[in-house]
Hints:
Blueprint: H1 2-36, H2 39-56, H3 60-79, H4 83-99, H5 103-119, H6 123-139, H7 143-160, H8 163-179, H9 183-197, H10 204-220, H11 224-245, H12 250-266, H13 270-281, H14 287-303, H15 307-319, H16 325-342, H17 346-393, H18 400-450, H19 462-476, H20 488-494, H21 499-510, H22 514-532, H23 538-544, H24 550-561, H25 565-574
Helix pairs in contact: 1-2, 2-3, 3-4, 4-5, 4-6, 5-6, 6-7, 6-8, 7-8, 7-17, 8-9, 8-10, 9-10, 10-11, 10-12, 11-12, 12-13, 12-14, 13-14, 14-15, 14-16, 15-16, 16-17, 17-18, 19-21, 22-25
Amino acid sequence: MKFLLTLTLVCILSITAKAQDDTQARKDSLRNRIAVTEGVEKLNAYELLTTIYYMEAGDDLKMDTLLALYKEFDAEALRQEKYKTQGLIRYNIIGAHRNRDNYDEIFKLVPDYLEYLAKHEAWQTYYAIYMTSLLTYLDIGEYDKAVGGAQQMYNEAKKQDHDNGKGMSLYILSVAYGFMNRFEEQEKYMRECIETIKNENYLLWLTAQAYFKLCSVLITLERYDEVSLQLQEFEKINYRYEEASKSKQTVSWINLWNAYMQLYMKTGDYDNAEIYCNKLDSISAGTFVNFQIYSIRSQINYERKQYTKALEMADKALELSGGNSLYMKETQELIIKILCAQKGMNNVFDLVQKTIILHDSIRNTDFNAQLDELRTVYEVDKITAEKEQNRIEKERNRNYFLFALGGCVLLAITLSIWIYYNRTIVQKNKSLYRQIKEHDRLAEELKQMTGDDNPKTLPGDRQQRQLVARFSDFLLSERNFVNSDISLDNLISELATNRTYFFEAVKTVTDKTPSDFIHELQLEEAKQMLETRFDLNIEIIAESCGFNSRITFYRLFRERYHITPKEYRKIARNNI
């Protein structure tokens, strides 16, 4: 038996070594071709070589090699004046930096790339790079820039009648709605994206991605029969994509299998979900897919009540999150869920979930308003486009009366939209007020249930917690936190510590700077006074809470509660 195990291990190692040798031989052969060939053949050799490194670029060394090859490839394409090829190279460079989370490098390169590609009218890759930069803003949570960029991109594409740019801006809009959990709108705009681009062979790569996103949102909406139909269409697109590109499209197949894995997981078919986990495990699928595999395996073990194994898989998923806030949040919620199940505290997890969701909804209300504004642009443009098409088709038969009537209808629609969005602003503010009050209630309830007022439950070591407790007691004693003349240096001296240790302790225990901690107390006090002291004007309240500047007070209040003090007081007065 030992002999058989040893023989098996030797065979596996031999196969692995042979595969590595074959890959290295291909690299060497392509490097030789690059050295001795010219023209299109040389560019083709560069393309094949960079593709091999792109699939292997899981570590920093290979990524550095890949980026160096792209630099050589780009210089050769420029020498041959192959501007479209340059566009593809630069799109892949941006993609490589995104895979490596080099966000600053992306934002540094994109403006010059876009200007260069627009100059040479390489519009296909122009919009692809534009879209990738907006997706990067979504990755890091800068939703305003993503939505604003999508609107600008849509307007550019509309002006030049570029369906690819319109389709990509629809894709961004759909993804943005997904970030806000507005799944019906996410589905609508992803379907419109697919309809806009699916007949163009050069956009099959994006069509495949759009089908993956559409299947994912349908799974979220629990419309599983529709998912099965869309997966069949997705598979057809993958075959078309491979036929058009004359190459294997591994990423698209990974996405298809990933969608099947999600579907089986949601329908409780854990055996089939594991089959697709194993299928994805068998190839180099990349960090994101590996993160999803471990996350799915953790959920499967959770459903089977194998909590120890579920925690092990969740910890591995957390390692693969790469610091991505969205992935980390999903995994941390999963870990909390498993731990609560282990200790029979599912009611605590449900309350934590409600608090997190409500906190996110407060943060996202403004962003939702921006999305609705962008959606209005699309809807108005759509109406205008339909009217323009009708005008062209019926131009010979249309008289001045009907033309004027059409203008009136469009004006009425525009006026209705304007009235609707004015009402939306009022509703948004009322919704924010209710969410803030509900968040306060849930936070208090969670504190009582879990005993979060016990210092031992806070982060940091005992000395750090004691120091922060003394700092907090001083601020709350006689409302010292409203004293605008507080000197942190004097306070640090009174607490018998040094500045570095004090700042580090406050940051560790509260995840805030001392100034932010004081501002939080001041803002909470101001919020209470805005709700109860209607005899005082806002400037007096700001000053009595420690704010010397009205502008600073308004800015900090809006940053924390996403509503102005004036709007908050108005709604609070009406709710008495």
